[in-house]
Structures are given as C-alpha cells and as structure tokens.
Design a protein that fits this description.
The chain is of the alpha/beta class. It is built from six helices and twelve strands. Keywords: NADP, Nucleotide-binding, Oxidoreductase.
Length: 244
C-alpha cells in the first residue's frame, strides 16, 4: 500500500515523494518506509492515496482523456476504469464503493454470473426468489444483502452471533450462525422449498461449501466466487470466480 505524503489543493497539485506500508513479518505492525515513485505509462493514471482504495489524481498521460489532476478517484492503473468520488462523500465513506459494490454487483448481476434482476432505488417487491450469500457481514456481503433486497430477492446468509443484528438490519431474511459445525446441512435445510437463484461466495474457502449447498437446491445451481476456486468434482452446481 503506497502513501504519498504531500498536501494538495485543486489549484496546487505537487509531485509527491512516495512511501509505502511494508509487512515485515508475521503478526508485526506495518512499517512506513520510502518507496519508489511509480510513474504512469500510456493509458495509465497515478493516484495519491488519501484513504485506502479512495484517492485523488496527481498525474495524467496525454492519452487519458476523461481524468484531470485533482480528481478524487478510486486507485486503478487504467484511466478508463477510474471512478470519481461525489462531493457528498468523504474519502472514508467512499472507500467501500469500488471493491464492495463493483465486485459484488458483477457477481450478482452480470449475465455470465448470477444474472439477477437489477436493483431499484426504491426496493422492489419480493419476487419469491432467494439468494445465498456466504459472508454476509463482510464488506462485500453487506453490499450484496442490500443490493439483493433492493432487487426483490430474499437473502439467506451466515454471520457470527455479534453480527446477527447488522445483517438483519440490512435486510437478510435468514441468518445462521457462522461457527455452527453443521452449517452446510443447516443452509441446505434453509433453502428447502425456496426458489434458489444461486449463491455468492465471499469469504476464504467458502466456494466449496457453497457449491455443496447449492447443488442440493432444485434450481439456481450457480456460485459466483469472490476468491479463487478449488477444483470441484462430482457436483451438479457450476461455480465461477468473479473476473477469474
């Protein structure tokens, strides 16, 4: 994670010195040390990190047409993929948007993944269909629950007991205990007699149990995974990594 240590205004963009947060060992605190200044190549932009994942633009190559120094952007390398931060959001508030919303929305709504109906600003009436979201209290999971509910889907998820009220407040209809030894069987039971539209596997090593659960559903036997998938054998369900 790079951190540029200059101050900026929209009228005065300075070329910064670059430092980075280094992981020096297991369970050790991050150490801030000098790092190389990464100049952008053609079609790339360089963004100064202000809050992790949400940052402002400091240098643009001539081939990048739609960005300007001083813009508040999500850190990416391709200029065409940068996202402006609305003035109504702080850097910290906007930090959830790129990873939390874009990754989740891709897995839920793109036609080569779950291909769900799109959400509406005013929550759609329930369509009687159910999505399994494995990891409901994570950043991606919190976004997924809200988008699924806004699109008219019921949500079955799992979370630690201390996060039950959080995921319920976001709209989850069924919440099961994260640390239950029989979680797969419990989720299979929770989806019985429901019209499944598939699952979103968010947390580490969640794709395989998600596939096990979804393979027992009558329909919607597809898992969109946020992390790399293991080799899956002897299953009726299909699984695919988002952008994988």
């Amino acid at each position: 994670m790079s951190i540029f240590n200059n101050q900026r205004t929209s009228q005065d963009i300075m070329i910064p010195t670059n430092v980075a947060a280094y992981v020096t060992g297991l369970n050790q605190p991050l150490e801030i040390k000098p790092s190389l200044y990464p100049s952008p190549s053609d079609n790339e932009i360089l963004i100064c990190n202000h809050a992790v994942a949400i940052n402002w633009l400091i240098e643009v190559r001539s081939s990048v047409a739609r960005s300007n120094p001083g813009d508040r952007l999500y850190t990416v390398v391709r200029g065409s993929n940068a996202s402006l931060v609305p003035d109504s959001l702080s850097y910290e508030q906007a930090a959830v948007v790129p990873l939390g919303i874009v990754t989740t929305a891709s897995g839920m709504f793109q036609k080569d993944f779950l291909a769900l109906d799109l959400p509406e600003p005013e929550r759609r009436k329930s369509n009687g269909q159910t999505s399994l979201i494995w990891g409901g209290s994570t950043s991606l999971g919190c976004n997924a629950i809200q988008m699924a509910m806004a699109a008219g889907y019921e949500v079955v998820t799992r979370a630690s007991e201390k996060k039950f009220e959080l995921v319920r407040s976001l709209g989850a209809t069924t919440v099961l205990h994260n640390h239950s030894t029989g979680i797969v069987a419990e989720l299979i039971d929770a989806l019985k007699e429901k019209k499944s539209v598939g699952a979103l596997a968010i947390t580490f090593a969640s794709a395989e149990p998600c596939v096990e659960v979804i393979s027992m559903a009558d329909e919607g036997k597809f898992v969109a995974a946020a992390l790399p998938l293991p080799e899956l054998k002897d299953t009726e369900a299909e699984a695919k990594m988002i952008w994988g």
